[in-house]
Amino acid sequence: MKLDQLVGTLADAGAVHHLVRQNRGGYVVCPQGVRVLGAWPNGEIDNVFWVADCCKSAQTLKTAIDSGEWNFGGDRLWYSPELDLFVKNPEATSPEFVPPPIDPGNYDFRVDGDVVVMRQSGTVRDGRAGVDIRFEAERAVRPAAPPIPDLNGVDCIGYELASRIEARTDGGPVPCVNLWQLAQVPPRGEILIPTWQQADPYDFFSTGVAQWCRADPGCVVFPVTGDNRHKLGLASSVVCGRIGYLRRISGDVWSLFVRNFLPVPGGYYPDFPIADPKLRCFAVQCYNDGGQFGGFGEAEFHAPVGVTGLTSRSTDTSQLWAFAGTPGAIRTVATSLLGPAARCW
Q1: Per-position DSSP letters for 135-170, written without gaps between them
Q2: CATH assignment, 3-344
Q3: Nearest CA to 208 among 189, 191, 192, 231?
Q4: 344 pLDDT exceeds 70?
Q5: Least packed by Cβ within 10 Å: which of 3, 59, 298, 314?
Q6: Biggest alpha carbon distance in the chain?
């Protein structure tokens, strides 16, 4: 969907949102899952994020919001570990549901100029341990300047995310709950992940890493098809703090978004694979939906968590820039921001 289409649908549905216009494009923020639901380097091209079919008309969008739907698309914030918080059965081996306190949540939504601040306090249940976790979460979204001074022939928008979550139980062990940030992307593109060295992606679903991603010296390439369910993880010690998503929009127009974040080698990343629960190191994850939720991919990153006294705390400040232009112009941007990964396409 183009910028004016999606923003018009949000307005007609009476949905709370805030639009920030930048250059020839912009981005729109919504409280459900504290999402940036859309981002457009140029308002005349398609959204760089995937959005669900329910967002395509005011009636279906209003129905989805009123029913507590979680799957809208965009760039959202969840909390992990998934196999503790997204299960009801303590013996579960895969996620069973999306907890409403996580998405859509119940966020207060405040706007000051072009800065959007969203906060909530709530309770989410650790289904594996059988305990309730009390938390406070916050995300602020503000415009970010272009990361490259000279962008001849390239449209660009950007935003910064400052997020935190604090969690505790009533008398039980301190819960290690962290920030998990996920950008849902349309199919027929590639997630590009620069790495310090040859990476060894972990296959979360045991579907055969070599069959559907490429790990080269200096980068990992994850094709997004949306029709085969896969998930991989990369340790915080090997990633460089950048993730890109590249796809052809139409004709001679390509889009690229680049996420900039801070991995912490040796930090505690609580999300874990069911086959090896002791592995708590994954700063980056990539996901192919397989069509069950709409046929998208996800470029994900986690922030580590630390414990002070009886409270765990996870914080993050990251940026996302979206670009659109000709293949040659986009390749120049990718080379500047993704290094060796830009040579992988």
Answers
A1: EEEEEEEEE---SSS--TT-EEEEEEEEEEEEEE-S
A2: 2.70.98
A3: 231
A4: no
A5: 59
A6: 59
